[in-house]
């Protein structure tokens, strides 16, 4: 299993420009609205609500905002690579430049969590994130995301 | 006779110095420093350089005094909070665990040594206790940071189980020496009464003694230099009085240490430093003397059964006893495995093995030699592998904060305040502009050799020395402000949980985001309250509370045990339990060439 079944190549933003966490989340919600056809406002509120609980910045410049969205029919991801990192209140205080937004239907339960942990694992791989940071090509980023990291596979 | 003094002193000091020097080498090898002391004793003894020391009574006497000093110090260094937290599992281990280990080893010994039942059980009793000195050394100096509950359990167990093993051994020796013509039931009754008497009097003497030490230190305005000596002498007095009254002196001196160490004396810091030194000396002397006393050329006769019993103890008896004893308490399999592996045998076992020789039991020598080998096996096999094991079991904690450059100064006249001197480290929160709380405004800043007020100094920069007066229970928060940043290790994400959670938020937020199935009542609580409840009322750094498919992890607690930072893991899975039988050659090489661990900057 890799991430390609969670995210479409169309949902990759290869060079996003955002100045703040809020703007970043707004742009992500906008993209997600385009992919899913659901209202942008609702998506934005959902992920913002989760951020209030605590930052989803997982360290080393990576954030994985996520939330449950009524009306969405399957687990859907949006990925953004930022031109300049923004502060995300991450655990290690490092600004964030790789963001994977994950939206799950209400009843997704275990699948939602499994998807989250897989994303966390792929984006924990330093080699992989270096490759993603080094390109502005959506197709290339999508293929890097689809790779299963060799280390941390345990 | 004049010459005698010089020769003995010369040899004695040379041995101690050599042992102290060897610690420099031993730090690179990790654990078995005590093994080296023992080895030096052996090397200098009858079969090595030829120092002929064969006086069982003197060896026992010196060893007992050294042990009393060590136990007082281990009590002194154990905080009451740690003691309370770990008292139940540790005391079960220290009593039932010791009995079980003694019994199991006794049975094994019966079948491989050709001793009688009583002698076999005696052998079991001598090696039944976990050695406080070895365990403390491993946990504190060996740079292993395990979960607080595991550490406290081990420390309290090893500190408090010697009296039981000592009692068992002495009873059995007495029994064998007196001939075996006693009724089983009167015997059991005698042993039980003897046990209650020893422990009861020991405990009382310890409580009264500890309290008296505290009162005397506070009341008498003793010369500062004299104070540590005074406390040391008092502790030995407690030991001797308890013993003379028919109690366990070892229990008494441990309890007295526990009380004195937790009394928040003004001079606690100084006493600790002094006792640190004395304990080192006691360790060195004890191991040297015991090494000197042994005669390795006799080991050949018993080496096979001894090795067998040693391995049986490590791989069967101790794990079995620990697993059963810890079953009622909430320990993970990895933690149980660690507790049983750190059950090192040490000087106490060898010391106890001398008692049959003093009473001239027929198989005394063989028994002593077997115990000696068992201890060697334990120190080598377990002592050497504890660090890698802790890491492999996933029990080591990532550091809470980066290295810190701090000195605590004792102030004359006031027991309520402390003067802290921090050196500002590049990358620390204060250096990056974080504010220092009002109650901790620096009194003085020293920059480039010039002293100035904080107001004048303005923003702190790396290399500044900052002096701060604080109430003695200053929060750890202050340390964090001055600590260098922690490097995030990918492994830490497993440990802390990938996502952050604000513990002050209501638990209903968790339910909304992850639907772990919280009840109505639970959703009304804050996350901190929920975690504390799920963790049995006490949250501790690194604890994990499972909620359905997710886990909440305690990232930090404040002084009152409230969760102030929490993480969330979406992949709850216990670390794989792999118990390495031996160190791989690669690990071994790495340990050999590793640099000496940095001394703790806080002390």
UniProtKB/TrEMBL annotation, chain A:
Chain ranges of the PTS EIIA type-2 domain: 5-148
InterPro entries from the UniProt entry: PTrfase/Anion_transptr, PTS_EIIA_type-2_dom, PTS_Nitro_regul, PTS_SugarTrans_NitroReg
Highest taxon in the source lineage: Bacteria
Pfam families in the record: PTS_EIIA_2 (PF00359)
NCBIfam families: nitro_reg_IIA
Protein name: PTS IIA-like nitrogen regulatory protein PtsN
Gene assigned in the entry: ptsN
